[in-house]
Write a structure and sequence with these properties.
2 copies of one chain form a homodimer.
Chain A lengths: L3 E6 L4 H12 L4 E8 L7 E4 L2 E4 L1 E2 L10 E4 L3 H11 L5 E4 L15 H4 L9 E3 L3 H17 L1 E10 L6 H15 L31 H14 L5 E8 L6 E9 L5 H10 L3 E3 L20 E8 L6 E8 L3 H15 L1
Parallel strand pairs in A: 1-2, 1-6, 2-5, 6-7, 7-8, 9-10, 12-13
Antiparallel strand pairs in A: 3-4, 9-11, 11-14, 13-14
Helix pairs in contact in A: 1-8, 4-6, 4-8
């Protein structure tokens, strides 16, 4: 089995650090691992297989010998470097939203649409965190009975915003518990002990970009433009793990029991649905499990084909870094 | 104008204390205010109009001269005392769920169905907190264009559970920030920095009682059994203020602009919907405003009659104590 030169761009960020960890955990066949970041973070060190690797400043020549580059440094960095990088023999897996909706760029969740990877021209996009967990949970239903519509409300943790947001939640929580006025840097409003119905920028139609990502990316990954999707995305004072309240209407009827049996057999999904013992997916459980957790499964009381569910996953791992590494695994 | 002898049952609880405050704030015409609670809390004192009133132990004779009794001491206490109390000339306004779905007991939100109060036989029920804010926000739409269906996901604060839950969120948050293992008493799982898709007990259909309250109470208050309602209720690490992500389908089309104009004129509603300036309803704003706050109004992109919205209110005040006092005001 051959080994590859791999670069992680944005290695010092919340997702970048997870990428390095996951490459090690999963024994990805790496010859050289090159860690890249902005000038500000260059010089920091990160452990990989017990070796301390120095993070280098990203520049035009960073990718000369790189086979696979995992980008997680924001859309601006992706837009600047990826078109250059992908012209060489480097294959880029991009965690930003820069190329996700580009028709020449496959948007991949390995459990859902790994076949689409063949279409790549050097760039493969990693979907948004809130999309990944939802499509993993809904794919078995799509395959079994079809899905006509999805109405989702999210409860997204601050780690989705990054390290500064994790610090902001910590600091504000501590300030409020000590009767001090909370200070703000990252979010437009206090996030500690509060809910913000606002993730990413607002678009002209009144939806946020985060909500539109859920809508557009889901359709692209499912290869189905007919599914009706409505989304409301909210930021909650949770460190890790995104939760989603999802209502769907299927094309054909499926019983909850049958659905549970399907989930029990589906790789990548952990069914956590034992309400008699107060067991259901929890954001804090996502620090333990890499699977997308599904629970609170119940039939709607008015629509025979309506199903309610609660979906939770680790937004830094399955929602970002793990999915990116799984895409890389499809390549090798 | 005559004055009334008023009793508050459960006066030392989170809602009971708000009731006393609101009776004072709104200048309710009170001759004598009698504060009642369990043996455990008897002897505590609460300020009313700068006088320190002693809380007495609730017993069968507590209501002999009482004109209006506000109950907020849980369903068991309501079930035990209210049938006795209501046989006298005392009118009971009950904040528990004990009598809400009783067909002889009106379930009142003054802005929505004050006319139903005439049907009372000594007992008037105060709806659940998550129901009150939703029906206040939806009533103007119901009146203008009709509503066919409602799909709601809630983000409910811990004060809805009571004082012990407020303490639990405080303690667990502090423990976690100090790298200690969080201790639990009130909730089945850690609530700090976590989301629990579980409020009240589970019913046989897989929904929680809280979710079923939203469904049944909304239909009763609207006097409309045909509205299709689906609900998912989640507890979030917020002290005060319930948030709700609500999707509705109206019978007839209404534009967002028209809806905003209606809300601007509707008493009891505060429109907070200026996304260009990051203004939308926030849980922490409910500590300042008594109105039900509505924002993030936007048309669904697939259903011409679909509307998404974000609804926030103070669960202890409009969601409980204030609504109860407003019912009392209808009586006098």
């Amino acid at each position: 089995m051959s080994e590859f030169n791999v670069a992680v761009v944005g290695a010092t960020g919340a997702v970048g650090r997870e990428m390095v960890k996951i490459l090690e955990e999963r024994g990805f066949p790496i010859k050289d691992l090159v860690l890249l970041a902005s000038k500000r973070s260059a010089g920091e060190t990160i452990f990989y297989k017990k070796k301390e690797l120095t993070v280098h400043e990203l520049n035009d020549k960073s990718f000369e010998d790189i086979d696979i580059a995992l980008f997680s440094a924001g859309s601006a960095v992706s837009r600047k470097y990826i078109p250059i990088v992908a012209k060489n023999n480097t294959i880029v897996i991009d965690n930003s939203s820069a190329f996700r909706m580009n028709s020449h760029v496959p948007l991949i969740v390995p459990e859902v649409n790994s076949h689409d990877i063949k279409k790549h021209n050097g760039i493969i996009a990693n979907p948004n965190c809130s999309t990944i967990q939802m499509v993993v949970a809904l794919k078995p239903i799509l395959d079994e009975v079809g899905i006509n519509r999805i109405i989702v409300s999210t409860y997204q943790s601050v780690s989705g915003t990054g390290k500064d947001a994790i610090n902001e939640l910590t600091e504000q929580s501590s300030q409020i518990l000590n009767n001090k006025k909370p200070t703000r840097k990252v979010y437009p409003h206090q996030i500690a002990f509060n809910i913000l119905p606002h993730i990413d920028v607002f678009e002209d139609n009144g939806f946020t970009k985060e909500e539109m990502k859920l809508i557009h990316e889901t359709k692209k990954i499912f290869g189905n433009n007919k599914i009706k999707i409505t989304a409301t995305a909210a930021r909650v004072p949770v460190f890790y793990g995104h939760s989603e309240s999802v209502y769907i209407e299927t094309q054909k009827y499926i019983s909850i029991n049958k659905l549970k049996n399907i989930y029990l057999k589906t790789k990548g999904i952990k069914l956590v649905d034992d309400i008699d013992n107060s067991k259901y997916p929890l954001a804090i459980m996502s620090e333990t499990y890499d699977e997308v957790m599904v629970g609170r499964l119940r039939k709607d009381l008015t629509e025979p084909n309506g199903i309610n569910m609660w979906i939770v996953a680790n937004n830094l791992r399955k929602g970002a870094a793990l999915n990116a590494v799984q895409i890389a695994e499809l390549l090798v």
